[in-house]
Design a protein that fits this description.
The chain has 13 helices and 10 strands. By secondary structure, the chain is of the alpha/beta class. The protein has 2 domains: 5-126; 137-257, Trna Endonuclease, Chain: A, domain 1 (3-Layer(aba) Sandwich). β2 (71-73) and β3 form a beta hairpin. The relative contact order is 0.11.
Length: 280
């Protein structure tokens, strides 16, 4: 399992190869490919149950690179190289962990720590991970039928119509169906809900696609866990109907954006301008 500091240079190189920017998912897939990381290693689940250990270490790598001024990210979780990142050498990137710790914590050692000394990694949209952990624990505690109804509400809020939960046994794992209309076109979409703590493998994707045959060309799998790299490749395999995958992190973001069970508070911060008062 690559450590967070061992992923820093591959992150820089991967972003250079993708034109200077990439989403969280694109960057993780690119690094798995470049570093020839096995699916067994890439699928290992972190103790928080919402992401892979590799994804967790990569989040720390991006966080440290951002603190060093080599990366920046948008509110939609797209990471890009800064001018300094474009020009950075391998030796400069290797010095990042020690430099960040010296700057933020006054530490002089250059020993890598896992997890790093900061409380949470940046997840790419400017938020800390703690609320996601609490949300996923809540979702994983829901009854199966409640989670299916949540998926139904989520799809409706996202623009789907005629969303029905079927949940019939022996239906190939299909939990429901909805219609997504885009301009003049409509797409019937079958969906499956998985309250997983671990990793959804490629077999589940193949089984779901088999159940779709003759019923729909569009499919969606929603899980509170993660998808293995093999599952993601299977979902977009050439010559087969594509299946959209929503993992635990993406599910949290969707619920937050749609304000379903989550509220965002803006905190007012007041500063006293002592210089202004001194000029009276």
């Amino acid at each position: 399992m690559p450590t967070f500091d061992g992923l820093m240079w591959p992150t820089i190189e991967a972003l250079r190869e993708t034109g200077g920017s990439a989403s969280n998912e694109e960057l993780l897939s690119k690094i798995i490919q470049r570093e020839a990381i096995s699916d067994e290693v890439a699928s290992l689940v972190h103790t928080d149950g919402r992401q892979s250990r590799l994804g967790y270490n990569l989040a720390w790598a991006k966080t440290y690179l951002k603190k060093a001024g080599l990366l920046t990210n948008s509110q939609r979780g797209v990471w890009s190289l800064t001018e300094a990142g474009e020009a950075a050498s391998r030796s400069q990137v290797a010095d990042v962990p020690a430099g960040v710790r010296r700057a933020e914590y006054g530490r002089k050692d250059d020993v890598a720590v896992d997890p790093p000394v900061t409380p949470q990694p940046d997840d790419g949209d400017g938020e800390l991970a703690s609320w996601r952990d609490q949300l996923l624990r809540t979702l994983q505690a829901l009854r199966p039928d409640a989670f299916e109804r949540l998926a139904q509400r989520l799809l409706r809020e996202a623009g789907f119509t005629k969303v029905e939960v079927t949940g019939r046994s022996g239906d190939g794992g299909i939990d429901g169906v909805g219609v997504l209309r885009l301009n003049l076109l409509s797409f019937i979409t079958l969906f499956q809900c998985k309250r997983y703590v671990g990793t959804v493998g490629s077999g589940a994707v193949r089984d779901f696609r088999g159940a779709m045959v003759g019923r729909s060309d569009k499919g969606l799998i929603i899980t509170t866990g993660t998808f293995s790299s093999d599952a993601r490749r299977e979902a977009t395999r050439d010559g087969a109907p594509a299946i959209e995958l929503i993992d635990g992190d993406q599910l949290c973001t969707l619920l937050k954006d749609l304000k379903l069970g989550l509220t965002t508070e803006l905190v007012e911060h007041v500063s006293v301008d002592t210089d202004w008062f001194g000029q009276i």
